[in-house]
């Protein structure tokens, strides 16, 4: 996945406009999900995906 160039304000505004929560995800939110998956709390989770996209995959296009 390509990193969003935050200097491209038009692209960023378009992404925010279609975002379910009205904002882009924060790096910390992705890091928290990754930290959970490697923690003891996730020790019984196998063979699944944890989608951290703020509901973007639920939107009908």
Automatic annotation (TrEMBL):
Role: Participates in chain elongation of fatty acids. Catalyzes the reduction of trans-2-enoyl-CoAs of varying chain lengths from 6:1 to 16:1, having maximum activity with 10:1 CoA. Has no 2,4-dienoyl-CoA reductase activity.
Keyword field: Fatty acid biosynthesis, Fatty acid metabolism, Lipid biosynthesis, Lipid metabolism, NADP, Oxidoreductase, Peroxisome, Phosphoprotein
Gene Ontology MF, one: trans-2-enoyl-CoA reductase (NADPH) activity
Catalysed reactions, semicolon-separated: (2E)-dodecenoyl-CoA + NADPH + H(+) = dodecanoyl-CoA + NADP(+); (2E)-tetradecenoyl-CoA + NADPH + H(+) = tetradecanoyl-CoA + NADP(+); (2E)-octenoyl-CoA + NADPH + H(+) = octanoyl-CoA + NADP(+); a (2E)-enoyl-CoA + NADPH + H(+) = a 2,3-saturated acyl-CoA + NADP(+)
Coiled-coil regions listed in the entry: none
This protein's name: Peroxisomal trans-2-enoyl-CoA reductase
GO process terms (BP): fatty acid biosynthetic process; phytol metabolic process
Family matches, as InterPro entries: NAD(P)-bd_dom_sf, Peroxisomal_t2-enoyl-CoA_red, SDR_fam
Organism of this sequence: Mycobacterium basiliense
EC class name: oxidoreductase
Gene3D superfamilies: NAD(P)-binding Rossmann-like Domain
Gene assigned in the entry: xecE
Record-linked Pfam families: adh_short_C2
Subunit-level organization: Interacts with PEX5, probably required to target it into peroxisomes.
Highest taxon, organism lineage: Bacteria
EC number: 1.3.1.38
Localization per record: Peroxisome
Pathway listed: Lipid metabolism
């Amino acid at each position: 996945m390509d990193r969003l160039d935050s200097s491209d304000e038009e692209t960023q505004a378009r992404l925010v406009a279609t975002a379910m929560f009205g904002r882009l995800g924060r790096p910390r939110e992705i890091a928290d999900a990754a930290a959970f998956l490697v923690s003891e709390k996730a020790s019984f989770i196998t063979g699944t995906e944890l989608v951290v996209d703020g509901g973007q995959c639920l939107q009908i296009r």
